[in-house]
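Lab notes, practical 5.
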Amino acid sequence: MDRRLFLTYVGSGTAALVAASTGLGALSNTADAKKHGKGHGNGGGKPLTTPFKPIDRTWENDLVLSKGYKYNIVASYGDKINSKGEIFGDAADLTVYFPIDSLEGGSDSEEGLIWVNHEFPEPGNYMEILGINESYDSVKEKLSQSKYPQLLEMEKVAVGGSVIRVKKENGEWKLVQDDTYNRRVDGKTPIQLTGPARGSKSVKGATTVEGSLGNCSGGRTLWDTALSCEENTEYGADYGWPNFTDEHYGWVVEVDPFDASKPVRKHTALGRFAHENAAMGLTKDGKVVVYMGDDSRDECFYKFVSEKKFNKNNRDANFDLLEKGTLYVANLGKQEWIALDYATNSELQKEFDDQADVLTNARKAAKIVGGTRLDRPEDVEIHPEDGSVFLSLTNNSDHGNFHGQIIRFAPEHDDHGSDSFTFEVFVAGGQQSGITCPDNLHFDSKGNLWVVEDFAATEDNMYAAYKNCGVFMIPTDGKEYGIPHQFASGPQGSEVTGPWLTPDEKTLFLDVQHPATWNRYPGQKFGRSCLVAIQGGRFK
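Output from the prediction step:
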């Protein structure tokens, strides 16, 4: 590990990880042994370079891009997506692009389906539309009594996710309105529970629950479905919705964008916590692994390994893969994965009633078995070249860590099924690296890491020098290893979320979430959360 980055990292006061110092530098020491000089490299591999001219930080209230690139807005909150009158939801976050010919093994990069998460409602904006002039605290109390039904309805249909068909026409990406694929999963959609907690007392006996909430990031399965992650477990008090059961939320949701007849499901085998995303890979013996972060201060890093093996020749045979398996939590000090398995762990047996109880209260179980508490573990992605695992730790002001870092893990024997790993800090946030509060991650085919930020800058707070949230590309090998290069800057007040490249890597999809400029009328430039398409140059 680079000494400059290490000193920056130690200076951030991240006690939990610095204490686990056995992992620091371990990947760099083994880099030369990797084939072709790639792998867990620290600058000695192939020359990954930046394909664009980096921009500077800015306060400009627009999506500012590197020279030669352009964007167009594809869909904004409130846009009608089908003949039923369903609308594109609010607070766009995760974007997953599926080529329209995906199920035939195709890679169409000019027409496809997109799944977009809608993380939260923005009731203040809806109150403006409805002409409600009370304080939101007062209104929220009345919502719990089923008053203000229009506002309650607007909040429920604003969340969850959208399936939309998109197509490139005359050089711009467009929403194909009224397409038969277009549909919503929202706060009212019936969703099935699967796995050990289904029907258990831990979820109040439920087998089907109402709606999905807090849909932050997620991922794409190997069988072309979307995984949408619920990022909170305590929404009852936050939302004020009537008849709310917290245990029905905080799960990973699976949606088949190609087949509306397939039920939407929440997989309890993957545990209940503030899921940021779900990165899927394979173990050496063919089982599915899903890496997941718990986006809260002092929470943990998890992986799930399926009981069954992936079947690459039969899509339908994989639809139950996430229903049975083992959930693990990472202990960075010991550099090992610890199973959250009630049947084999006497400590868990003392605290919980059964495996359903363990999974529903995964955070508590993780701490009992020795999971390392981290600084808001958010997005996690698997490197396309060497299989190392990158985890963004956004920040933790309780530890004096205001700028976060990205950690790189290497599973033992390059096997995601291994119980052991090594790790190092890939990049530390702060003035020396120029990046702060890393959030969503995405790899291009060469192995460059695309990173977006999550912070709220004002002209007089500690993030003032960083201005608006940005989009960065960071080479993971070559001379520019670990050096962030800014590609884009979001509008004022926004996060730029959900980066996703088309297969030909000529389009980058992004979401602009909660821009400061609100406009009650749809279609106005960055007046609402929206999905955008960026084109014009190279992305790798």
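Observations recorded by the TA: The chain has ten helices and 31 strands. The longest strand covers residues 160-169.
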